[in-house]
Amino acid sequence: MRGTCANGAMAYIAPANHEDAVKDFRLGLRRIWESAGRPKPEEMARRTEIPASVFAFFLTDTALPLPSRREVEAILAGTGVRPDHRERWIERFNRLEQERAQLDQQRIARNRAEHGLPPQQLGDLADLVGDPIDVSPPLAAALEATTQEQLQAALRELRAAAKLSVRRIEQITSAVPGDLVLSRSTVQRIEKDRRMPSREQVVAFAKACGQDQRAQRLWGRAADRVATLAAGEPDLTGAGQVEV
Length: 244
What we know:
Number of helices: 12
Oligomer: single chain
Radius of gyration: 19 Å
Distance between the termini: 47 Å
Number of strands: 2
Mean pLDDT: 77
Strand content: under 5%
């Protein structure tokens, strides 16, 4: 939304509702892309050395909530937005992310209060996993996720970091007899669908992206935790005290 300042300049006025503000944010980024001539993901990837899949996720998933920071930065860089304007967009993103975190914490607190449980927050990653482990940014995001959208954003980050296409994920999961096969359409649903992906799908996805067995278990635990919270049930998965 835009309004006019006293000096006649255009100023951004955020909608009062968080969901509307997120939709407005996504629409604004898409308008930037359209103003840049609608460059293809492959073209933006060449400009920025960011995987084309990151751009494709954003451009094809207009119904998704707040995009990940990586997606925002990729669109801004790929469309040639000036550095000072990029900073303003990142500031908007940070505010929206803080609002979302606050709303998530309020929802979790309500769930716990309804079930007579004491407040609990996710501990440090060192406490979460026990012994030292190399936690990648996507896994860290998954372990901190409290919503399906946040988990799916982490999964998209994981595949982008692994530089794997949807087709390649299908090939990898089809190569080992007995493993859960993730078809191209299944991978797309895992990353974007409004339905929560199953623990088995999340673990198979993580395995295909090169995560070791310990990390796979953590991805599975993250999926369990998000599914529990999405169902409005108390978090009894032990996400804060995982032994792997």
